[in-house]
Structures are given as structure tokens and as C-alpha cells.
């Protein structure tokens, strides 16, 4: 129900009276095809309280592991759209050198630093200025050129 008028009901159960749709209340909130679709939804004959159920686990409870398995199966079956490769947070195509970088045998902090250098993601003054920070763009070492990632590797 997305077109609630005034102080309409908050719950679907408020549109049901005596085990059937309250067509007057439904027509007050909706019209045309939308109203007909709602009124055509069959209602259960059992008086069971509604609850949220995750269809991808036996218990009906949501678990991160069940989502992972569902997404993996969807990907195998071609149901998960897009070209997600999991190598770059930017999407698009990236080279295999990203995988090589992350598989290097070195401390994770060094790999992270290299990745940030290669992605121009270090908080150099020029990058900070691009992101709206105020201040001097000049290098603190030479005070004449803008500070960029290349300042430290020349």
C-alpha cells in the first residue's frame, strides 16, 4: 500500500474483515488495476499471525551464510545479473595485477599502502583538496610544488 490517504491503515491485516478483504477500505486506498490485484489475492483460511520468512534457509531465519550460498547459486545459474568480479570496488574491468598484488607474501599493511599508491588514494594534499578540504596545496617538504603521490617517489 503506497498511496495511503490521510489516516489509512498501517497494516494489511487492517484491510481484512472476517477472513475476507474489506473491499470498501481497499477501494478507499486504491483504484483500478491496483485495487483489483489486491482483491484477487487469496487469503488464508487459517488465523496465523504474519511473520517475515527467509525462503533460503530451512528455519526461515536469515543468516549471512544463507545469503552467501544463495548468491553463489544465483551466480552459477546466471540469475545474479551484472559483471561483478570482486576485484575492485569501482566495478568495471581491472587487470589481473590486482590479484597478484593481494597474493604477494608481505604484511597486509604494505599491500594496502601499495594499493592506495596505485589507486592514488593516499591523503596527499592534492587529493584532500580535490575532496573539498581547505588548506595549502604546496608540499610541506619543498613548499614550492603541489604535494601529490609522486612527490614522495621522485
UniProtKB/TrEMBL annotation:
Residues covered by the Reverse transcriptase zinc-binding domain: 94-150
Domain of life: Eukaryota
Cross-referenced InterPro entries: RVT-Znf (IPR026960)
Name under which the protein is recorded: Reverse transcriptase zinc-binding domain-containing protein
Protein species of origin: Lithospermum erythrorhizon
